[in-house]
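## retry 2 of 3
previous attempt timed out at serialization; input unchanged, resubmitting
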Amino acid sequence: MFGMTGKNVVISGAGGGIGRALVALFRESGARVTACDRDADLLASLERVTTEVFELTDRAATTAAMERIIARHGPPDAIIGNAGFTRAERMADVGPEAWDSELALNLTGTYNLVAPALPAMIAAGGGSIVIVSSVNALAHFGNPAYSAAKAGLNAYARALAVEHGRHGIRANCICPGSVRTPAWDHRIEKQPELLDEVARYYPLARLVTPEEVAQTALFLASPLSSGITGTAIAVDAGLTAGNRRFVNEVLGG
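## retry succeeded, writing output
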């Protein structure tokens, strides 16, 4: 029903928690998936995909990888820019090195992935670019450098949508809230009860799943969303709708 059978889909950060859910769902939709990551070991167990291993912050390597993908399968029908990383959680943690590295991967890395494919996509009549951003792009929940990079991705998607819409390019962002992936492991080791505490902030009283993020990406990549471009969709269990904990504990306490 999604119209993705035989479509050429490129997914970055494919070896991570959300990435694996993306790969599985797009494969199930009938798409031809190229799974990209900087860690070959994370891609080794993925089945029925083509893999590319490169570092997104290396522009030459990323461009060469996209050239190989286009030579192998033709221009991407969809690019899912999913790779991301943060460890600088508060302003006190953000020094020059953290700032540079987090912007390089989260923001510039996505540009490095998308830009080399645009001419071929435009020549082929267009395609969909789906960027996994964050609720951190919409409001401040910590991780200052990561947040700045994700806000930049939202702006980049709008620029692509406005300037290349006439070429058949659609570009949208997904803004997940907290997603239970291995990225949480280092926090949970310190605070085993942390996820229960975090869930108290969410109107749905839970975190979203990698599969829910993947389902939104599939919709935005597919013809079912053909009239949607330049948007940022929060997949966040209601976090950005309002402060559940404030309502429950302050107003109702």
